[in-house]
Amino acid sequence: MSDQEHRSRVQRVFHKSMRVVLEPLISAETEGIDMVGSNGDVRKVFPILCSYIADYPEQCLVTCTKYGTCPKCQAKAKDLQEPTPGERRTPSWTKSIILEAKRKMSESNNNVKVFHNHCMDHEVSGSVYEPFWAKFPLCNIHQAIMFYTNYIKVSSSTSSAGSRLS
Ligand SMILES: [Zn+2]
Questions:
Q1: CA-CA distance, 52 to 62, in Å (whole number)?
Q2: How far is the CA of 82 from the centre of ligand 1 (A)?
């Protein structure tokens, strides 16, 4: 196995693992969950994956961004010194690049190099077929990503809706 293939597999294992760990949050985000507040009242809350704190390499891994480019905008590496940012990256944009790369890969007899090259041409990591955040309807991973601290890795915020349940 080449170093490139090894790195790609590590990235895919990360995304598959995160998908398993965070899967319960998807239904919580869409259907809500009951939580007891500090005063004892039970309220329906909708936790949203809204911040993910990581250093730069992990930001690229999490957002499926080509290493050396910006996890938040579509600026090419050569344009990163420009005073204005590029067009924002969005989850739907990133997923569309990956989807098109998968289509091209399947047309080329499942040549993973075709997938890799299409993604890299668009400043997207050429390793991940399905980002863990792809099924979170309200998560914008490119906005959620933040600089690293030593204390928190993943957090979510909650918003309460509706009336008290008890
Ligand atoms: Zn940027």
A1: 9
A2: 10
Q: Answer whether residue 166 is part of any domain.
A: no
Looking up tokens 């008290």 gives: 164
CA of 108 to the centre of ligand 1 (A): 32
With CA atoms as reference, report the closest residue to 141 among 64, 69, 74, 86.
64
In a domain, 68, yes or no: yes
Residue 41 domain boundaries: 3-161
- DSSP strand pairing (33-36 vs 42-45): antiparallel
Kindly state whether residue 145 falls inside one of the protein's structural domains.
yes
Cα(131) to ligand 1 centroid in Å equals 20
Give the DSSP H or E segment for 60: helix 56-63
Helix (H, G, I), strand (E, B) or coil at 70: coil
Residue 23 lies in a domain: yes
The average confidence (pLDDT) of the chain is 89
How remote is the CA of residue 49 from the centroid of ligand 1, in Å? 21
Please report where in the chains the tokens 């938040």 appear, as a residue. 72
Q: pLDDT tens digits for 100-149?
A: 999 999 999 999 999 999 999 999 999 999 999 999 989 999 999 987 65
Looking at the 3D structure of the chain, how many domains does it have? 1
Residue 74 CA to ligand 1 centre (angstroms): 7
